[in-house]
Amino acid sequence: MTLQEINKAYNRIIGSLDSKELKNAFDSIQALISGSREISFQDKLNELQDTYKYMLRYRIEGAKDPMQEQIYNKIQTSSYELADRIKHKAMAIESPLAFYSRRRSLQVQPNVTFENLHLQLSKHYATGNRAEYDAMLIVLFNKIWVSDPFTVEDAAVIKNILFDNELPFTAGCQIVSSLTLGLQAAFDPEKMMLLFDAANHGNEEIKVRALISILLTLYTYRKRTALYPQIINRLDALSEVPGFTKAIRTITLRFILARETEKITRKLQNEIIPEMMKLSPKISNKINLKDITPEQLGEEMNPEWENIFADSSLGKKMEEFSELQQEGADVMHSTFVHLKSFPFFRELSNWLLPFTTEHSSFGDRFNQNNGEKQMLDSMTLAAFMCNSDKYSLYFSMMQLPEEAKKMMMNQFDSQATEMIQQNKEELISKRGKLETITGQYIQDLYRFFKIYPGHLDFNDIFTLPLDFHNLDILRPYISDEESLSTIAEYYLRKNYFSDALTIFNQLAETNQESDILFQKIGYCKQMNDDLQGALDAYLRADLLNPQSKWVIRRIAGCYRSLKEPEEALKYYRRYEKLNPDNLSITI
Question: Residues 6 or more apart from 38 whose CB is under 8 A from it?
Fold first, then answer.
């Protein structure tokens, strides 16, 4: 079989299992075994088929078996796992994908065990050998990422590293990120359990990253994860931790906001930057920038500049841009998208590495140069930039000529540090630490899945809706009215009307007396060109609140669009009584 045929066969198996069509799944697994000549898996398939036959026979004979549902779920999970193993074995030798090529390169280093890596990490960090520590952390990341399903012993060793307080938090963060990528490649319940362990970690950065990874894994395997009782149990336990529902809600909102990244990039490139280029000659004509001296620069903006901005559309766009930044939108993506070619970014794991002044990339200059130290400390505090972009900024600045570099270093004095610290505190007070860490990590993930040189070897999670609130397994924890309303309102504000409508309909099932709710349902349907559905919702809202001028006018507009002018006229006359001076209604 070719690699393409293997993938097609595997997808057929997963589709059958997702639909609970076990007989079709077994037939497809048999075809995959025969086609790939991986006959070592035949005995396991035969065992699953025999178990399924016995279960069906007992059912036909009317025998009551209290364990029947558990046995059926076990057959399903074992079939999923068998399909995963056959696929990875068949792809292992020839597949050019990064996952398999990295796995092949690690297989030639049989002495690299998780226990050994833990010892090496501890030794190098304790002795201050940053370069060796970072190198070992990369090896650990790759080994976890491309590993086979973990044994209980493997998981225990990784957990020891994760909770080793002698190591810096970056080790735990990289373990979580490598587990995330590994789980995207193949489901492994032991790796999933490690993420739940990490979600109870004392370090906030590790905890938040683990929560994001859990949600992504639950979404990727939404047909499979509910079959594992241990996952349900761990979710129940995690939900008892204060703030769990808020965390799911926050992560969901940040992934919705990530959808806006490409729109923001286009707006910058097609509107804001060209507008600034047009204004540049006007500013130069009015103000001779070459002759300006430091003494002439006061605290107030030049009124001539204010007039220029007021006369253009740039002012409003910049204000909108500022609001997006305050909201946490990824406004930096377009700035740093072309600054990822440094050697640091050739290593996959570095794309998800937290920004830390201890990294060996900063070299000895960090200890010798107070300007660089000041700058790095300031960048660590910058809450409005993701980790990946902080590394980009530093490496870019190091490329500058010495004079320019010195000048820039001088900007990062104590005042700059104080300003960034103040900015960080303002952002955190507005959005909270949870949201700040969530936003930074999601932006790091976004850059990895979109612009990492080998990103095509990975399934881009950002092409998926990532509507975690619609997952059956998460509904018990995020079905409260506050969470659903917050998410729905956010969808509505960002013009994702279909997503908003799904939640508003769900809320309407338990709340039939809210005219505002039916107004929003009608608006979403109208924006999706479902005029009859919109009209029905608006009429319901009108029954609940006959005094809403907005609803009356919307009803009239729907009737008019549906070619029912007589009905439209009735509602225009009602609106006219409530607002007699509106000339457009009279017309």
Answer: 32, 86, 89, 90
Q: Which two tokens stand for residue 112?
A: 């690299």
| Helices 68-91 and 22-36, axial angle in degrees (round to 10) | 20
The CA–CA distances, whole Å, from 233 to 155, 230, 238, 363, 462 equal: 18, 5, 9, 46, 28
- Mapping DSSP onto H, E and C, the string for 97-111 reads CHHHHHHHHHHCCCC
Please give the Cα distance from 205 to 441 (Å, whole number). 9
- Cβ neighbourhood burial of 358 (10 Å; 0-12, 13-18, 19+): middle
Check residue 289 and report its DSSP letter.
Answer: G
Cα–Cα distance for residue pair 183/221, rounded to 1 Å: 9
> What one-letter code names the amino acid at 252?
T
Residue 349 gets which letter from DSSP?
Answer: G
Supply the DSSP string of 409-457, one letter for each residue: HHHSSHHHHHHHHHHHHHHHHHHHHHHHHHHHHHHHHHHHHHHSTTGGG
Q: What are phi and psi of 579, to 5 degrees?
A: -145, 75
Contact 349/142 with Cβ under 8 angstroms?
yes
Which residues does 255 contact at the CB level (< 8 Å), separation at least 6? 442, 466, 468
Per-residue pLDDT of the chain (587 residues; tens, 9 = 90+): 899 999 999 999 999 999 999 999 999 999 999 998 889 999 999 999 999 999 988 888 877 777 888 999 999 999 999 999 999 999 998 899 999 999 999 887 767 899 999 999 999 999 999 999 999 999 999 999 999 999 999 999 999 999 999 999 999 999 999 999 999 999 999 999 999 999 999 999 999 999 999 999 999 999 999 999 999 999 999 999 999 999 999 999 999 999 999 988 888 777 777 776 766 565 555 545 445 444 444 455 555 555 555 555 667 777 777 777 788 888 888 888 889 999 999 999 999 999 998 899 887 654 555 666 677 777 777 778 899 999 998 888 888 787 776 776 666 554 455 555 555 555 444 457 899 999 999 999 999 999 999 999 999 999 999 999 999 999 999 989 999 999 999 999 999 999 999 999 999 999 999 999 999 999 999 999 999 999 999 999 999 999 999 999 999 999 999 999 999 999 989 988 887 777 777 77
Check: CB of residue 460 under 8 Å from CB of residue 220. no
The model carries a pTM of: 0.89
Copy the structure tokens of residue 115: 């226990």
- Number of other CB atoms surrounding residue 115 within 10 Å: 12
The pair of structure tokens assigned to 323 is 């609001």
Between the alpha carbon of residue 406 and those of residues 380, 395, 400, 419, the distances in Å are 20, 14, 9, 20
CA 409, 413, 419: angle at the middle one, nearest 5? Answer: 120
Whether 397 and 404 have beta carbons less than 8 Å apart is answered as no
Q: Are 461 and 445 in contact (CB under 8 A)?
A: yes
Local structure of residue 271 (DSSP, 8 states): I
